[in-house]
């Protein structure tokens, strides 16, 4: 089976592509500059202009493309963040609609930011949308994916949490201050962190591609969310470093501006849909997940 992946050059995308190749899939990775793209051996890097040809006859499309949200949220940056996701979904949709042999499924990335900042409320796929820029961005992202998906193509909206991997994402940014003994919770420490081990996320993506029961929103998070305070304490314990140096919310807002919502807001999101379909998480415990990632040599 042929699989087309957009946004497949990031740390999560490369893992997913490698897993697909390991299952004998033929994978095309859509990128702006195929000549310079870092893709796993065996995958084919193609340009966005080649997307329609690649989609025609493919078994599935995975759309992970979008401007990074980890940047200061100026008005221009917000436009790029939202616009890049809408544009990617529109281009994928055009390719799907014009294909003579349409893929069976489109897996489109989304995020638990959809729910906004909801304090201690337990959030499943049945919960409504929240407010704020993260929620607004994710709502627009999902709506663009729905508009882009033609009849007969199954759409999965993977609402991911904080993806833990030592070679990228949020965890990689946290490691240095903790290893220097300057780690600790951010803000109040009471905000919830909906996390997932990168290998569990890849496995969940594979399940969603292959199992037709997966459709619509799917919370791609561990069944055991933790607070920021619990996360910091666990990371400190795994690294054998202190974790008592909190960063106050006012200092984070001063440094990051509105983007501080990324670390000061939280969602107690739960994977109700995946659980109902029998998905088994390898890493349902945060300490076990961190030890798997950090108690062995990096595997980039």
Descriptive terms for the model:
alpha/beta, 300 residues, 13 strands, Rossmann fold, two-stranded parallel sheet, single chain, 17% strand
Which percent band covers the strand fraction?
Answer: 15-25%
Whole-number radius of gyration? 19 Å
Task: Output the strand order for the largest sheet.
Answer: 3-2-1-4-5-7-11
Please tell me the overall pLDDT.
92
Number of domains: 1
- Say what the CATH topology is: Rossmann fold
Helix and strand element order: EHEEHEHEEHEEHEEHEEHHHEHH
- Total strand segments: 13
Low-confidence stretches: none
The CATH homologous superfamily is termed NAD(P)-binding Rossmann-like Domain
CATH architecture: 3-Layer(aba) Sandwich
Q: Which class do the helix and strand fractions yield?
A: alpha/beta
**CATH class group:** Alpha Beta
Enumerate how many helices there are, as a single number.
11
Largest beta-sheet details: 7 strands, parallel
What global shape is seen?
globular
Helix share, percent: 25-40%
Rounded to the nearest angstrom, the distance between the terminal CA atoms is: 26 Å
């Amino acid at each position: 089976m042929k699989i087309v992946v957009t946004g497949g050059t990031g740390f999560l995308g490369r893992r997913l592509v490698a897993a697909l190749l390991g299952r004998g899939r033929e994978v095309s990775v859509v990128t702006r500059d195929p000549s310079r793209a870092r893709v796993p051996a065996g995958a084919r890097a193609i340009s966005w202009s080649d997307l329609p040809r690649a989609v025609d006859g493919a078994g599935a499309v995975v759309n992970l493309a979008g401007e990074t949200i980890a940047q200061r949220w100026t008005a221009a940056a917000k436009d790029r963040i939202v616009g890049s996701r809408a544009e990617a979904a529109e281009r994928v949709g055009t390719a799907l609609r014009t294909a003579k042999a349409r893929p069976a499924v489109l897996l489109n990335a989304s995020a638990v930011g959809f729910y906004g900042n909801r304090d201690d409320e337990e959030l499943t796929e049945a919960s409504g949308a929240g407010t704020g820029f993260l929620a607004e961005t994710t709502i627009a992202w999902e709506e663009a994916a729905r508009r882009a998906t033609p009849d007969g193509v199954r759409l999965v909206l993977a609402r991911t949490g904080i993806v833990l991997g030592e070679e990228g994402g949020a965890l990689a940014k946290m490691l240095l201050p903790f290893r220097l003994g300057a780690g600790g919770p951010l803000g109040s420490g009471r905000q919830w962190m909906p996390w997932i081990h990168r290998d569990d996320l890849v496995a969940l993506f594979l399940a969603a591609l292959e199992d037709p029961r997966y459709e619509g929103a799917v919370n791609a998070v561990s069944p055991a969310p933790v607070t920021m305070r619990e996360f910091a304490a666990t990371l400190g314990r795994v690294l054998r470093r202190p974790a008592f140096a909190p960063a106050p919310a006012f200092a984070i807002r001063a440094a990051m501006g509105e983007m501080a919502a990324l670390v000061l807001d939280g969602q107690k999101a739960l994977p109700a849909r995946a659980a109902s379909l029998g998905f088994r998480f390898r890493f349902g415990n945060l300490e076990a997940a961190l030890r798997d990632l950090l108690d062995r040599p990096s595997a980039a």
